[in-house]
Amino acid sequence: xxxxxxxxxxxxxxxxxxxxxxxxxxxxxxxxxxxxxxxxxxxxxxxxxxxxxxxxxxxxxxxxxxxxxxxxxxxxxxxxxxxxxxxxxxxxxxx
Length: 95
What we know:
- The protein has strands at residues 3-8, 11-17, 24-30, 38-43, 55-60, 65-71, 76-81, 85-93.
- By secondary structure, it is an all-beta fold.
- It has one domain: Sandwich (Immunoglobulin-like).
């Protein structure tokens, strides 16, 4: 089961902890159908993870882009999501 963490306008953020690990899958949905991609900026602490004591790496699965060493408290993720599109993220702790 995924958990809805943010719903703001046409944007929804859903997160699921991956089986017995400190890794997460996060999907960012743009439900807008105006033909314009959404530039979504989300504070890391609002992605629904429990990394409140450190940093994490974020991998954009479909665009193959890395966001390394993101701070739970201080950083925000900015990502473009096409209309009626989804960004899929793999989030895992820095080891």
